[in-house]
UniProtKB/TrEMBL annotation:
Organism: Sphingobacterium phlebotomi
Pfam families linked to this entry: Gluconate_2-dh3
Highest taxon above the source species: Bacteria
Name of protein: Gluconate 2-dehydrogenase subunit 3 family protein
InterPro entries listed in its UniProt record: Gluconate_2DH_su3
Length: 172
């Protein structure tokens, strides 16, 4: 056997051994590490569908494609006070239960029109946990979308602060 071939194969095996744990995801855990929140995989998937319903994909990428649910989780974990974090965690459970109670099916199983109608009816809900959870999620989703790389590079066209000099502008 050639020394170069043996070394190449050894590097392939070592690279595969390093990448294999990254490909294996333990079921039940969240995708990102958080210090203050304990999110399960099912709750993360629910949040991803909620974010996708708030900002659906069309000719532009949607909330799930831009990973806004992870942004929401990280912002709540890092930037909110413990009362908001507790309300968020209680709210995600209450939101799931309320969706099943109000429509007879889980939020994940609904089609897009039912999800949208369900979200539009949330301001009239008596449960404050659901309202607060939805308000936090919606606010952070919009913030994440407006600060995403896609919006900042492709949709917004910036002009530096003093702007262009237009010596031919007519004053009335």
């Amino acid at each position: 056997m050639n020394r170069r071939t043996a070394l190449r194969r050894l590097l392939y095996i070592a690279g595969g051994a390093l990448l294999l744990p990254a490909c294996y995801r333990q079921s039940g855990k969240a995708t990102i590490e958080m210090t203050n929140l304990e999110i399960e995989e099912e709750q993360e998937n629910l949040l991803a569908e909620l974010v996708e319903t708030i900002i659906p994909s069309s000719d532009t990428p949607g909330g799930k494609e831009l990973l806004l649910h992870l942004f929401v989780l990280k912002m709540v974990d890092d930037c909110h006070n413990p009362e908001d974090q507790k309300a968020f965690m209680e709210g995600i459970v209450a939101f799931s239960a309320y969706a099943h109670e109000a429509t007879g099916q889980d939020f994940m199983e609904m089609d897009a029109d039912k999800r949208l109608a369900f979200l539009e009816a949330i301001p009239e809900v008596a449960d404050e946990q659901v309202k607060r959870f939805y308000a936090i999620t919606k606010r952070r989703t919009i913030q994440g979308y407006m600060n995403s790389k896609y919006v900042m590079t492709d949709l917004k066209k910036y002009e530096l602060v003093p702007g262009r000099y237009n010596g031919y502008f007519k004053m009335t």
